[in-house]
Amino acid sequence: MYTVFGTFAATADAMPAKPFLCIPPRPDRAYMPNGAEFSYADIAGKIDHLRRRYIDAGYGHGHRVCLQLENRPDFLVHWLALNAIGASIIPINPSYRAAEIIYVISHAEPDLIVALHSQSELVKAIAQSDCPPLLLQVSGDDLGEGVRDIPRSRTHPPAEGIPNSRSEAALLYTSGTTARPKGCILSNEYVVSTGRWYVSRGGEATYHAGTDRLYSPLPLFHMAGLTLTTMAMMLTGGCLILPERFNARFAWQDIVACRANVLHYLGVIVAALMEQPPSPQESMHSLRFSMGVGANPELRRKARERFGISFVEGWGMTETGRSCFNTVEPYHLETNTIGRSEPGFEMIALDPDGNEVPARTLGELCVRHSMETPRKGFFSGYLKDPDATEEAWRHGWFHTGDSVWQYEDGAFVFVDRLKHMIRRAGENISAAEVESVLATSPLIRQAAVVGVHDPVREEEVIAFVIANDGVQPSDEIAERIFDHCTERLAPFKLPAWLAFVDKLPLTATNKIQKHALLGPDKTPLPDVKAIDLRRHKTNAIKFNGASTK
Asked: How many CA atoms lie within 13 A of 260 on its CB side?
């Protein structure tokens, strides 16, 4: 059980007949419209078929393979087959545009891309790449059984020996404070220990071996969907319920039909469920609890009263893997309490000089495994960026960039992000990345992007722009700027609001004072006219087949 595949194989040997994967029925879906359920033995057989095909094609320990397979069960089968031979996966967000994909494949240098036939932006990206990787297009609806002729690897497996806990299991790209996402290297130890930590929280979030069915409406190209929920079920012999995406209209139908007893949430998921009209199914469920991140105290209180389950709040990020959760009394449910420091995941609040701050004083959340082995179980580093890795790990702690304060009893309370990040519906969006795209528009001289409050999605993207010389600000110009971004950014990153300003607030060193762009409640200032582009953004998201409601 030192690898992801080893974990799955051990459970498949011990509980072959237990259900591992459940696909809710959806008549209008392109794959498995009637739904399906597969046992550990079923999936083990599919993995073995694919594993042999990859070996025959020359792939092995140390190779990297991009997967653009949406949230289909084929994704998991390909991942486990590749992990079995020591290859790492690079999940690609299916809503990425060609320019975003080009960056990922040029930076990660994958040996192969496995994708659905319908990924037109990917095909465009490969055609425009200087050194395009090999491409395997699949139907995505047969759990890999139809895969026969995999393009032969151009290189021998770069790593020697058999896969182990230190072998790379995945490379996940996460938005940072720079304009380009960073590639987080995740080892087998990271993935397995992350899942083991998740199911060991106890209290209101106690898992039961061999009986739990976890509804996980999270994308597999995110850390939580890939490692927390998926590994939780592998480690406990449970069943992962995997919808193609979260849809509030069908969520309770799925939860009831698939007999889910655990739900993993994001704040946007809870908010969207609360916006739905009451239905009989929401009281017919068998859920024991829900755990996740990003739901404020009032939202959790109302959801608990309406749905009759606990919403156990936590905190986590791709670099840390393991996530803290608020499972120890006193819970302090009136605040955004996220948990306490404990052996294996130590937490501290530090000031800018690296000193611990007193209770009820704002500081930066910093975390580590322990003083002796601070990085154990964390990400292995940022790909091709050792300086950024060491900067994040200064003074022996991983600096999260998030602000917290602490109760006298040790409970930590999340306040906000210190970095220039926008958290929209569970997606981390780099403001710098959106700004870099805006800067390429001939209509714009300067731009600043921040997160504005949104009652459902936590935050939305708002862009403050100074129009170029000769450009007269108007709704039409705003829409042209939006169209410019549409060609270069995934829909969820697009500006939902755009405000034309004469100048941007600057510091003495000419840095933009982003905190001065919005009011204290993260809404536009009264004298700022923000043009509403949410309808265009919603249409762009719908066009790409994504839904948050």
From this structure: 29
